[in-house]
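Question: I have long wanted to understand how a fold can be written as tokens. Here is the record:
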Amino acid sequence: MNVPESDHPARWWHALADGRIQCDLCPRDCQLHEGQRGACFVRRMVGGKMLLTTYGRSSGFCIDPIEKKPLNHFHPGSSVLSFGTAGCNLACRFCQNWDISKSKDMDRLMDSASPSAIASAARQHGADAVAYTYNDPVIFAEYAIDTALACRQQGVRNVAVTAGYIHPSPAREFFAVMDAANVDLKAFTEDFYRKQCVGHLAPVLDMLAWIRHETGCWLEITTLLIPGLNDSATEIGDLSAWIYRELGPDVPLHFTAFHPDWKLDTLPPTPPATLTQARRIARDAGLHHVYTGNVHDSEGGTTFCTHCQAPLIVRDWYEIRHYDLNAEGACPHCQTPLAGRFGRQLGHAGQAFGARRIPVRLAS
């Protein structure tokens, strides 16, 4: 049997009595015949076993600011080596990276790299972390976990950008090696998840609560507001109230602007006023750190002290214009600690990485 070099033994599956196998990675629970691929397209049955077809292959590598993930309370000003593979286990009609996440063409994966090569590249290029992003790292969990372990051996942090659509058992191993995660909470109705993503809301809410309360992974949340679909004041209020009640007021929430794309290319972009209103609703619900993204909004990008309201981190897009935390990560004016993960200084050697985007090629 001819198996491509990128095919790697997959985990989290079991055999069925009728000769098929069932993938146990995510709530889709795909049941596969010989040669068939799951909904994510990158996990398939070969020789009675499941293989991951994208191990060691990437759609590209790039050095980004941590704020682009977006993570505003995790080592601000630092840089991350970002990469992804192909495929996705959701089918979002509004996907902003559809050419990667919806791709069924493995030739899109131009760069190959072993976990150790990625960790070494991060060190070589001065990146403080590796970000598993572009498409959802859940579907290449074996590759991501191996890479994260290699990164930890070299003192490099790990960041997951994910929709959180994963079963508890693999999630325990996946998030155990992640230092931070931004989870995409796509909406707050089952109807939206079912019609727009071909998924379900409840597993994502359960995963958010589990990450927040049962792991040491720093958590931030992003919701892309789509006109007419998930941007009503009622839904935003319900979403914010749930975060406050179940996760706590200090979990940062990012509302980002939709741009017409993929199968929702006839909808208008999100008006800036919608983001401003969403931020106000969430703050009125008790959330301390609410941000706006994909728009130019200085106030919506600024981190304020929760006690005295002093502007502690002022951002202009991905640029940090003002940084006013003490060495303990607290407000220097009233000594109130700021929730998050902060080093003793801003970024790398006291300098923020800024809004640069630096493509990187590597192979092993």
Residues 6 and 55 are 5 Å apart (CA to CA). The mean pLDDT is 92. DSSP finds eight helices and 20 strands in the chain.
